[in-house]
Automatic annotation (TrEMBL):
Protein name stated in the entry: DUF2202 domain-containing protein
Pfam families registered for this protein in UniProt: DUF2202 (PF09968)
Span of domain DUF2202: 55-213
Phylogenetic placement of the source organism: Bacteria, Candidatus Uhriibacteriota
Species in which this protein is naturally found: Candidatus Uhrbacteria bacterium CG_4_9_14_3_um_filter_41_35
SUPFAM superfamilies tied to this protein: Ferritin-like (SSF47240)
Database matches in InterPro entries: DUF2202, Ferritin-like, Ferritin-like_SF
Length: 214
């Protein structure tokens, strides 16, 4: 059952990324098709004379993705009372606020309209929140694996989005977020190692993850 849930989580993450990708961008490796994929709502992209559509959708995506990370870590702290989760949750709050400031700067409507955990404009993020919390509530090793997976995805997305923009303000924030996510990935994998477990890369390559950890 745990394996099936992990497959469902992976498929949901794939759908989330593809919602914001153009057809000619990098896609995920094909996954098993036996699990049905959730339907993702269409996102209305606001008009901005300063940014491209890819830049706008990227900011909207990362605003919700960083909020999701914060919410999941808060939930896992409530479950396990491990300080790693609450410490990184506080950092995720600063990450999502940094993205919000860019939305304000470029006059882009904020997709986050409530502080209620697990509630997002994109319902696929809500589904993902529920899946990740369920998976992370199974065991402490699963909880730290969920954390490492979120950071793996964050870095992967931010690297791809950075390649789609030349805007100095966006690049500055994305660089800050990548550095933070690399620190978080190291923290979660350290906790896994202390419990005799290892993290296997899900989105970055194993070489990329090894480079970050070393």
């Amino acid at each position: 059952m745990a394996l099936g849930l992990l497959i469902l989580i992976t498929l949901t993450l794939i759908v989330l990324f593809k919602t914001y990708e153009k057809d000619d961008q990098v896609s995920y490796t094909e996954q098993a098709t036996s699990v049905s994929q959730p339907v993702v709502a269409q996102v209305t992209v606001p008009v901005s004379g300063q940014l491209s559509e890819a830049e706008i959708t990227g900011l909207i995506r990362m605003r919700e993705e960083e909020m999701l990370a914060r919410d999941v870590y808060n939930a896992l702290f409530d479950k396990w009372e491990q300080k790693t989760f609450i410490n990184i949750s506080s950092s995720e709050q600063s990450h999502t606020t940094a993205i919000k400031n860019l939305l304000v700067q470029f006059n882009i409507p904020d997709p986050i309209q409530t502080e209620t955990p697990g509630v997002y404009q994109n319902p696929a993020f809500t589904d993902l929140y529920n899946q990740l919390v369920q998976k992370g509530s199974t065991s402490l090793v699963d909880a730290f694996t969920v954390g490492a997976t979120i950071e793996d995805l964050d870095i992967y997305d931010l690297q791809n989005l950075s390649a789609d923009t030349q805007n100095a303000d966006i690049l500055r924030v994305y660089s800050y977020l990548i550095a933070g996510s690399e620190n978080h990935l190291r923290a979660f994998t350290k906790q896994l190692n202390m419990r005799g477990a290892n993290y296997s890369a899900q989105y970055l390559t194993e070489d990329e993850v090894t480079k970050i950890l070393n």
